Amino acid sequence: MDSVFLIKSLIILGIFALSLGIAAYETYFERVIAAFIQDRVGPDRAGPFGLLQPLADAGKLFFKEDFIPTLADKWLFILGPSLAMLTALMTSAVIPFGDSILYDGHEILVQGIEVNIGILWVFGVVSLGVYGILIGGWASNNKYSLYGAIRAASQNISYELAMGLSIIAVLMMSGSLSLRTIVEEQHGMNWNVFYQPLGFIIFLTCSFAECNRTPFDLPESENELVAGYHTEYGSMKLGLFLFSEYVNMFISSAVIATLFFGGFNYPGMDWVYSALTSKMGEVTGHNLATLVGTLVFFGKIAFFIFVYMWVRWTLPRFRYDQLMDLGWKGLIPLAVVNMIITAAAELSNQPLLVNWVGLGVFIALLYAGSALMKSKKTSV
User: Fold this and answer.
1) CA 309 to CA 27: how far, in whole Å?
2) Which of 96, 119, 222, 244 is 20 to 30 A from 137, alpha carbon to alpha carbon?
3) pLDDT score at 63
4) What is the mean pLDDT for each group of 10 consecutive residues in the chain (380 residues)?
5) Cα 331 to Cα 112: distance, rounded to the nearest angstrom
6) Phi, psi of 2 (to 5 degrees)
């Protein structure tokens, strides 16, 4: 049991280290992708190909002056970035990064903790993350910081509603709140995205808003609020705020891959498993198959991280009224419609067909309604 405990501890520490390491190098790859899109030279000074740039950034932040404004609430000022970072790292605990490892007759899940309310854990912890921004913005005693904090709170509340409704449609299909069960239901290529294309688009859009990424980065819009909720922050306190956003981007990409793209499942996985176990034995083959699935999962995560960065350097920032209109008048009604279509599909014998037919009927009705409204305006 001591060996099993050691392996489980190593898995937990590995997930923690990967979350930090990947988030650190997201800053590097964001600069590289931005340079490519804008046709300019990216980071190339710190180490070969600029690979040491994240370490240089960390050193720069660490050695900057760490100050607290005179009129700020000192302890809340410190608590804000700490809470933002804590909630960002806690979310990865329930994500299944792989199948399982066989060791000494025990099956050890490649997951921090397996709980039957995994998706509620993710949703609850992510919701708490906004408190770090709120506390930091309010404690700064700066009107620009406060405006940024208020924007972040209202934005998160608005988009969490649509995100929750899109998740309900997935839960209706899987019948479980466990992330591992949701992944196992998508064995091979039976991914939820084929059943829930609208739900995926809604969830992805809400994820941009939850991570404060362009075009939803109004809580920290420099042209209106100087820097937003972290205007008064410097040194590693600012670093924690910025770093937590990159950790959230990694976690949200992992959740998207888990809910809609099969997690560690991939086409041909049964053939790979059979080939490995027949050549290398049950234990070694199973563990190697788990490693392949984990690598596939991280490949999916890398793709969605790239999508985040691609969108940032492609789309302009929304106006605040546009952001709120999209959340309340656009995504929430769409999520409700998607939930109704999913309910009808689950009651039928052909859920895939009914989902797509229902989505097609809704698009046709939406187009017909908009055309009718346009013709009425023209006649008036």
Assistant:
1) 10
2) 119
3) 86
4) 76 86 88 89 85 87 84 87 87 88 83 86 85 88 87 87 91 89 90 92 91 84 80 85 88 93 91 90 89 93 93 86 89 92 89 88 87 76
5) 32
6) -65, -40
**Tokens for 353?**
């067909």
Alpha helices for 91-142 (secondary structure H):
118-139
The rounded Cα 139 to chain-centroid distance in angstroms is 27
pLDDT, residue 264, reads 92
pLDDT digits (tens, 9 = 90+) for 236-263: 888 888 888 889 899 999 999 999 999 9
Q: What are phi and psi of 108, to 5 degrees?
A: -110, 120
Rounded Cα distance between 129 and 108, Å, is 30
Minimal CA–CA distance to 99: which of 265, 261, 259? 265
pTM value is: 0.91
| Torsional class of 77: left (φ above 0), alpha (ψ -120 to 50), beta (otherwise) | alpha
Q: Would you call the peptide bond into 48 cis, given omega within 30 degrees of 0 as the criterion?
A: no
Phi, psi of 56 (to 5 degrees): -65, -40
| 255: amino acid identity, one letter | V
> Which SS3 state, helix, strand or coil, does residue 317 take?
coil
Backbone angles phi, psi at 356, to 5 degrees: -70, -40
User: In angstroms, rounded to a whole number, what is the distance separating the alpha carbons of residues 251 and 28?
Assistant: 18
Q: Rounded to an integer, what distance in angstroms lies between the CA atom of residue 53 and that of residue 197?
A: 38
